[in-house]
Amino acid sequence: MKKAFITGVTGQDGSYLAELLLNKGYAVYGMVRRSSVENYERVHHIRDKIVFTQGDLTDQSSLDEAIKEIMPDEVYNLAAQSFVPTSWNQPVLTSDVTGLGVTRILEAIRKYKPDAKFYQASSSEMFGKVQQIPQTEKTSFYPRSPYGVAKVYGHWITVNYRESYNIFACSGILFNHESPRRGLEFVTRKVTNAVAKIKLGLVKELRMGNMDAKRDWGFAGDYVQAMWLMLQQDQPDDYVIASGEIHSVRELVELAFDFVGLKAKDYVITDQKLFRPAEVDQLIGSPEKARKILGWDSKVSFSQLIQMMVEEDLRLLGS
């Protein structure tokens, strides 16, 4: 039986990936940080099937111990300080977790399980002030936040360990991917949750920042499939994982309100405090390489995704 070790297992991607791997017959180990309050809601339904181990990307010895003890066949590094606005308030922490954390886990693999296959969660935020449309694996990076900068470091250190130590290390440059399990601080979930609340009469308005920002959005459940596929190839490589379609935040908001039979203009208020210090205007990825080599494609459309999220938020709030 193959063993997989997932950092960030209790997050959105970690929960979908754990499900996928369990369905494929893997023994799944997940890293969680020690805290006084447990947060297992995203993996609650599979909690008894995952072996949890305590560790932290800022602590080398905990990562060494985890790799030594588990001796995994595959390692998926999904843990990060992953919220862009927070990275401006906590730039040093973000650098340590999201950037240096990748080096620490690669070091643990190099020392104790060099034949393990490694997946690094890279991000479309690395492209930032985009140098080319659409963005491909060859597009140069120009990050526009401490989070984006930290992800660029994580990406290149992964390349360096692959080339220097012959570790089977891949990076998936994932564009925005959402789901009903998305955290409330992310714009898609913030919108669908607020729309559900407005529909149920719980709140009166939705405050938004830049409505003209454009993103390439897909479904997290589709995107974790690509992570697994990367580690099943003969050679390690990096791949852009995206829908190849672009939509504005305005479209997202209008669509969500449409699903509940309301008009966005009656409830949305623009709030200057919610604008980023440096905006990333247009991210759109080309999934051509992933289609060709991995045989991967996103299945859930943008409108299906938003509908799925609105319906789930209505159900959660209604209950």
What do these coordinates show?
The protein folds into two domains: 3-177 and 217-241, Rossmann fold; 183-216 and 246-283 and 300-318, UDP-galactose 4-epimerase, domain 1 (Alpha-Beta Complex), CATH 3.90.25.10. It is built from ten helices and 13 strands. It has helices at residues 12-23, 60-70, 84-89, 91-112, 146-165, 187-199, 220-230, 249-259, 288-294, 302-318; strands at 3-7, 27-32, 50-54, 74-77, 117-123, 168-174, 177-178, 206-208, 214-215, 218-219, 238-241, 247-248, 268-270. Strands 3-2-1-4-5-6-11 form a seven-stranded parallel beta sheet, with helices on both faces. It has a two-stranded parallel sheet with strand order 7-10. Strands 8-13 form a two-stranded parallel sheet. Helix 6 (187-199) runs parallel beside helix 8. The longest helix is centred in the first third of the chain and has 22 residues, at 91-112. It starts with a strand and ends with a helix.
Task: List the main descriptive attributes of the protein structure presented here.
7-stranded parallel sheet, 13 strands, globular, UDP-galactose 4-epimerase, domain 1, Rossmann fold, 319 residues, two-stranded parallel ribbon, 2 domains, alpha/beta
Which helices and strands occur, and which strands form pairs?
Blueprint lengths: L2 E5 L4 H12 L3 E6 L17 E5 L5 H11 L3 E4 L6 H6 L1 H22 L4 E7 L22 H20 L2 E7 L2 E2 L8 H13 L6 E3 L5 E2 L2 E2 H11 L7 E4 L5 E2 H11 L8 E3 L17 H7 L7 H17 L1
Parallel strand pairs: 1-2, 1-4, 2-3, 4-5, 5-6, 6-11, 7-10, 8-13
Antiparallel strand pairs: 9-12
